Amino acid sequence: MKLIIVFLLSGFCFSQTGTTFIEYGVKAIPKESNLEKMSLEVCPNLYDIVEGITFNLYANDTISLFEIEDKFKEDNSTETGIAKLRSGYNGEIITKNDSIYNLNFANYLERNLILKKEIKHDWNITNESKIINDLLCYKAILKKETVNSKGTFVNTIIAWFSPEINLPYGPLGFSKLPGLILEAQTKDCIYGVKKIEFNYKSEIKFPKIDTNKFLEEEEFEKKINDYREELKK
Amino acid sequence: MSQTLKGTVTDSLGNPLPNANVIAKPLVENAELKFSIADYLGRYKLELEKDTPYEVKVSYLGFVEQTLNLPANFTLKEHFFKLKENNTQLNEIVIEYEYKPVVIKKDTLIYDVKAFTTGNERKLKEQLEKLPGVEVDKNGGVTVQGKKVTKFLVEDRSFFGGGTKLGVENIPADAVDKVEVIDNFNEVGFLKQVSDSEDLAMNIKLKEDKKKFIFGDVEVGAEVANDNEFYLAHTGLFYYAPKTNISVIADMNTIGKSTFSFQDLLRFQGGVSSFLGGRKSLSNLFSFSTDNTDVVENKSQFTALNFRQEINPKLDIEGFGIFSKQFTASLSTTENEYLQNAAFTFENKTNTTENKTLLGIGNIKLNYSPSKQSKWFYNAQFQANNNDVLGNLISIRDDGSQNNFQNRNKADNSEIKQYIEWHKQYQNKNHTTTLVVNHQYENQKPNNHWFTDTEFLAGLIPLQTDTEYKIQQLKNVKNNSIDALFKHYWILNNFNHLYTNVGNNFGTTNLTISEKQFVTDGTINDFANGNFGNDLNYLLNDFYVGLEYKFKIGKWINKPAIYPHFYHLKTKQIADNYTLNRTYLEPQFTSEYEFNSSENVKFNYTLSNDFPDATKLLERYTLQNYNSVYKGNTLLKNERFHSASLRYTKTSMYRGLMLFANASFNKKVKTIRNVVEIEGINQFNTPILTDNPETNWRINANVTKKIYRFRLQFTTNLSGFNYIQTLNNITTENNRNNQSFGVKLRTATKKWPPISFGYNKDFSQFKGITQSSFTNDRISFDLDVDFLKNFNFKTDYEVTFNQNSQNQKNNYRIANAYLSYQRKNNPFRFEISAQNYLNNGIKINNTFSDFLISNTTTYILPRIVLLTVSYKL
Amino acid sequence: MKKVVFSAVALVAFSFAGMANNEVKEKKSEDRETKKVVLKENNVCCTLHSMAFDLAIFEGADSATAGAYADLVYNNCLKSQ
Asked: In angstroms, rounded to a whole number, what is the distance separating the alpha carbons of residues B701 and A198?
């Protein structure tokens, strides 16, 4: 009898090594800035549109894929476009080993470019904890640096991860925490898990990363600057 | 020191659980959380701090969580987690949780300066003014959401002693990257969780490429149009490097611009530990005039040097030196009405003074942090100043009598202050102790002379009739104090803290005063014969033990405290000695409720006893002024008072709403108050202790709301003071009330130039045997506009209307304008300024005191048109 | 310079107001060459493109995101022409 139970449960154990499907909701944090004003003029109900988007994270032991739900994938309307960017989303994100691969992020330039970044996530894990739906979560803080032509911008990312769910992933490519990120707040928005499905049934194809297609950040920087120069002509 | 814990995570059958997260949570605050992710064989390895207790937890979905408790200095090297399966089979978790973004971090607000500013700002001050919730006043004081910034830091380090003025007015805007505002600031990191520090610190983060840099500017201005010798020369030079900071500020001007005023002096005081703030410094009594602009002449020279050097990561030396020389000449006329129950005396007084002050300060501070858990501070400060005031005073009364005085007040004061602080956090991180010893020595030698041709204070001073009168008063005040405090903080758990205090304040004062008349025939008339002249040795010791218990119930923090005090007061004077021993229980209560991170209410109550200082106990007469004589009361005991305050704060960044309200109430149940005898303009004051209650209360509120593209601000300040006054043997109840209301409308969009309109109305009433009131209306306007790319025009205008109950009305207008030109990225800047361009010569001010209604006209600097060239390094 | 930016923001608002009735979803041009030709003819849209890019950069967006913002604004501008 005992044996049978064990058998059943050990079957379940492996579920954590299969693909897990996580659904994230997002909420925009209103802010005052020129870009925000412009976005709101283009799309007055931006915050509602953002709240209506669901993001999916597919993850297993070695790889994770973060993408917008299918119905918005091919929606090229300006409103959706702005809402995607407002959520901090600009194309699918794959995390594998120590790298982040960003897909379809600059289709206006060239299709199928892949941007490769090193994961430099230097999380500061705090003693602070809270319970999200019976799951004990710890707070981790990341000072995320973005470098662009205007300088270096450091933004604080606050993540709450649950060690119980042993997937070191999260939304927008945030990763390398000892547990799944259930909540993540950036300067623009807050992501929160709505649903987790273990042993995800549907077949999920992780896009292939064609090593010939990928760019390092500096290469892309050059490309976009050339493009902008051309525009000005 | 670290300790390794290794092992495996397996199921009950010993099958490895790969990727299991092993989390080691420290059981003390401020220690780091550690974790390990099990490998494919379920192996984990944790590097832990040796002296920290941990709770090691392994949780794995589908298994029962396991916890291992590790005490500090544990010896365990291995642990094998065998997780038991639990019987719930989960395929899906649906989370219903309201994810809420945190808007304001409780303790720190970080402003990214470039998000709020236009880039045209020159100094930090102009940037700060554009940050939401931040206000900079005319004296360089900064408030954030209504709370005053008390510590000013650059790159987490104290900048010029921590005062805001020098920093905000001198740090060039283009070096500033971020402004951090830290509430409940405490220099000792590990004390943060237990301290009730009310310090609000502002920390300026410099831009990455300005981390090692010399910056500063040189400014030279000369008068155009007229030649009244008005000029301005200013330089501020800063050297900043991660380990060394040196800054020099030098200023010379005759236009009343105060680079360093007495207010700064207070901020520069240093030398006193923040843990022992209770002791009154007598130096305030003999200090300079704080006014710099309301004078007819003002020549000031000022130099300040500040340095900080990191000797090694554990030891830091900071210090500053200041030298200031100032000459001011002032003129004022005052109409006084002396209330003597039924009769009145009117006096017209004209006062001319010339004041020369010299001040030197040297300060050095050592910060030593031998380990993460302990910290030492030593600070020493030497200060010397010299004041020389030459005055001329004409007093004409309504009965036709008059006096003409020439007086000279000279004072040589010196002061040494030092303290040592030691903070330690123990192995068991729930215990922290602090020891502070503070020593202070002051020596003040004011020397006052009065010359006049008419007899004065008739009947009150033993004057010998003469053709002219020459009176000299010599004072010497020596204060010496040693205060010590030992505090123990005990964190029972996150919700209960217990603090124990043991302290002793010991202070002595030697006060000698002598008054003499130098008679024209060469003889000296020592007033000592008329019961003048004092020689007082004063000692006050206060030993206390205090117990404070802080507990948290949800969002509600309470801290009741009880302090038994053992007071010992002893005086020795020419005639009598006096000893007083008292034991009092002084309770305190603080309660704070935090509705959410942006709304909270705080209540505070204390019962305290205040012992009379040395001057209140003087047994013989002393000359106070040309029209007043004072005598202490050797048998005075302590005053006793209740004070309570309630503070409410609400801020909503999204809705642009900020609301602050404060109410405070003080009631003295044992009161020391001067009994006044007045005849004509001559007064005699002596303090007595009574059981007459004295109450004062104050309510103020400030609401700011963003409406469309404007920011609308309302301020209210209501206060009342009720006391019992004995005047010429008649005791009456007096009431002084004051109400002020203000409204201000400012533009709050970058699309429009900053413009603000303000209107303030104040009402003041005095009710005793007589009644009197006055009102004051002020209308102000500010404009700051950039035009033609490189030009900037700024102007401010304020008109004041005064009216009193006799229907006397007066008004005056003050206006300044500045036109500047600076090409972008060009170090030169040209400015034409017209200070007081309406060339209004006076300011008028109404005041009440216990028996005096005054209307003072102060003569101010005339119109000054200056051409200024500045060069920015 | 400031003023130019702000009037450009106002322009964006107008151009979008004009396009609210446009129900037809245009297929996004994948051909870079044709786009470039159009670009030269539409100075206003170019200005907006560059402005949106700068605003995003100014707020700390990376080049890819700033480029995406710029592209959205640009295409929208074209549609309303």
From this structure: 56
